Amino acid sequence: MMIEGLSIWKAAGVVGSLGGAYAAYTTLPVNIAMRKLNSVIRMGNLYMSIQGYKGRVIKKYPSFSRKDIRIYLNRTEISFVLPIGLMPDEIYKKKDLFYQAFGSELEFDLSKDKRRFFIKAYNEEVKMFDYDQEKIAEGAKDIPLPIVVGNTQSGLVVYNMVENPHLLITGETGSGKSIQLRSILTTLLTQCKDRVELYCADLKRTEFHIFKGIAKEVVIKPNDLETLLLKVVKKMNRTSDLLNKHGLAHIDDLPKAIRPKYTLVAIDEFVLLKKEKDIMSMLEEISSVGRALGVFLILSLQRADSTVMDGILKNNLTVRMAFRASSAVNSRIAIDSGEASEILNKEKGRFVFSMDGLKFAQAPLLALTDAKAMLEPHRWQETTAENVIDLRNNEYDVEEESEPIDEEENIFGVLEYEN
Ligand SMILES: Nc1ncnc2c1ncn2[C@@H]1O[C@H](COP(=O)(O)OP(=O)(O)OP(=O)(O)O)[C@@H](O)[C@H]1O
Ligand SMILES: [Mg+2]
Questions:
Q1: How much is the pTM?
Q2: Total structural domains within the chain
Q3: DSSP result, 50-65
Q4: Using one digit for the tens of pLDDT, what is the confidence trace for 302-359?
Q5: Is 2 contained in some domain?
Q6: Nearest residue CA, atom 18 of ligand 1?
Q7: Alpha helices, H only, 103-201
Q8: Whether residue 225 is found in the same domain as residue 285
Q9: What is the CATH number of the domain that holds 375?
Q10: Host domain of residue 306
Q11: What residues flank ligand 1, with Cβ below 6 Å?
Q12: Dihedral sign computed on CA atoms, order 368, 371, 377, 383
């Protein structure tokens, strides 16, 4: 009896510890993530169906194993392989399910062969931060034409515009577009002015005055922009002739001695150009052939719908920064996806960055005074002492912010500086 009693207790002990081990196993973060992924795939009907033997339908689901789930202190990384025939778009269409399962801080990436999906689910959102000159200079170093994106969950992102030409920035009023442009252009002008000529159009007349005297040209009127673009197109044609003459395909292939600088045209408040047909057709031309010729565009506006921006131009603006959108429809107009409408009004400078996948990002906050201080040494560097006095007296001692805009006056008209 004693022996039997003992074995019952023993058996209970074994079952108990097995049960405990099982409970511990199922609550392992890896297993929780696997279960969530499984249910997202099933609930989203994410499968490819094929006809099997005797007309039976076989469902092929994305595949993954334990080693495709990685748990880190600040994030969970998940990846899975699509069956051939299941298009990545089908996954993107069901993105909301992934958000429901894994939280709001997700980053989606796709392998080049479009078979493997990578999803990173972060525990915390990216915080606002100030422009840090040293850190950004370090990030921009060695990049031929560095565009500062800002902080993503994986840290500061800076990309090369030569490889990813033409940027579209959208977002409702007050969402952070102009501050982002300020930071992008200030970085370019302070880090690689010797490699790029910057042409700016500030149709709202509030932002780009700080670049006067450093950028090649700063204009505020559509007419002046048209003249500016004519020059850019001419320059582009000259580069094209040069490439033809040397039998080369890309500006970077030209010998250094004869290689022209890159050209960047940045336009804030693009919507004000909507009726300017000539300007539009030149921008379209630049967006179509500019890449190989080293001519790039950054266009910023609230809503890039077809009444404002032609389809060809929009399609050629392959990199997108979508700041807060007022509706999912507006977000989709910018990035073919609704995320930008989930950004809250108070989340200034937050946006969805679309370049080989989608990521939430936070733009650095670069205050006007800080941008001016950074730019100042570059402004006077190439002008003679005489010019400094001259220009100061005539052009620069203008109070920018409080300056009433006089339609007749063209103090910020075309200002050209020879480098
Ligand atoms: N990266 C940022 N970090 C923190 N605050 C920001 C950031 N960007 C913008 N802001 C805040 O939001 C305000 C509006 O930004 P900004 O002028 O860039 O908006 P906008 O999108 O250009 O608006 P509009 O379409 O009206 O020109 C700024 O004055 C600043 O206070
Ligand atoms: Mg603005």
A1: 0.76
A2: 2
A3: EE-GGG-EEEE--B--
A4: 999 988 888 999 999 999 999 999 999 999 999 998 889 989 888 999 999 999 888 8
A5: no
A6: 176
A7: 133-140, 177-191
A8: yes
A9: 3.40.50.300
A10: 133-396
A11: 128, 171, 173-179, 302, 348-349, 363, 365
A12: negative
